């Protein structure tokens, strides 16, 4: 595991712990020798994370769609900045550059990114670990929704390990590093499982 893609809010949020944990995660990434891949912004939790990585002497790689956001949002002091044509290309590039994924608190964009990489992992497009940094229980409702999906028969229980949830960055990074990919067993309950 060399590079970690972090999905994070474009705002800092109302809880001071969000910003604190973004900075702590940045410190732990550098301490572990990991490079950061993220959305390329200099504001919000994304900016706090990237600035911490850079201040600690680490590498921060941003991926930003051309012309989609206001110019001052783009971080101009990154180790690398990849400009892409749209959001689809942005997510694909971030995934290609990364060996693992972590989600800090965020909004619709962060939720969408998390569920996309989980869905891709579920059907075998990638075998990379996915972590949630559960700051002050932020992701508890999402975890409950996943549990509801399992109880209702839409998510196989064997796919629960696709989401690794921890409250501390150092513990989360260690679990991602030691991740064993799930079996790419059949996810469709109406089809015969041919993986046996």
UniProtKB/TrEMBL annotation:
Q: What class of enzyme is it?
A: hydrolase
Pfam families xref list: Lysine_decarbox
Q: Which domain of life is it from?
A: Bacteria
Per its UniProt record, what SUPFAM superfamilies does this chain match?
A: MCP/YpsA-like
> What are the record keywords, sorted?
Cytokinin biosynthesis, Hydrolase
Cite the InterPro entries for this sequence.
Answer: LOG, LOG_fam
EC number(s) recorded for this UniProt protein: 3.2.2.n1
NCBIfam families xrefs: Rossman fold protein, TIGR00730 family (TIGR00730)
Family per record: Belongs to the LOG family.
* Protein name according to UniProt: Cytokinin riboside 5'-monophosphate phosphoribohydrolase
Q: Which organism is it from?
A: Bacillus songklensis
């Amino acid at each position: 595991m060399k590079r970690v893609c972090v999905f994070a809010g474009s705002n800092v949020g109302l809880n001071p712990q969000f910003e604190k944990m973004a900075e702590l995660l940045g410190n732990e990434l550098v301490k572990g020798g990991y490079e950061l891949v993220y959305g390329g912004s200099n504001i919000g939790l994304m900016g706090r994370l990237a600035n911490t990585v850079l201040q600690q002497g680490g590498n921060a790689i941003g991926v930003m769609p051309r012309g989609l956001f206001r110019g001052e949002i783009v971080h101009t002091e990154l180790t690398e900045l990849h400009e892409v044509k749209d959001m689809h290309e942005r997510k694909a590039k971030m995934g290609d550059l990364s060996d693992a994924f972590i989600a800090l608190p965020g909004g619709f964009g962060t939720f969408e990114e998390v569920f996309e990489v989980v869905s891709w992992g579920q059907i075998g497009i990638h075998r990379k670990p996915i972590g949630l940094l559960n700051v002050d229980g932020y992701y508890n409702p999402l975890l409950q929704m996943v549990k509801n999906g399992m109880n209702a028969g839409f998510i196989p229980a064997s796919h629960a390990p696709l989401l690794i949830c921890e409250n501390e960055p150092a513990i989360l990074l260690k679990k991602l590093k030691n991740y064993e990919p799930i079996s790419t067993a059949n996810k469709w309950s109406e089809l015969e499982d041919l993986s046996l």
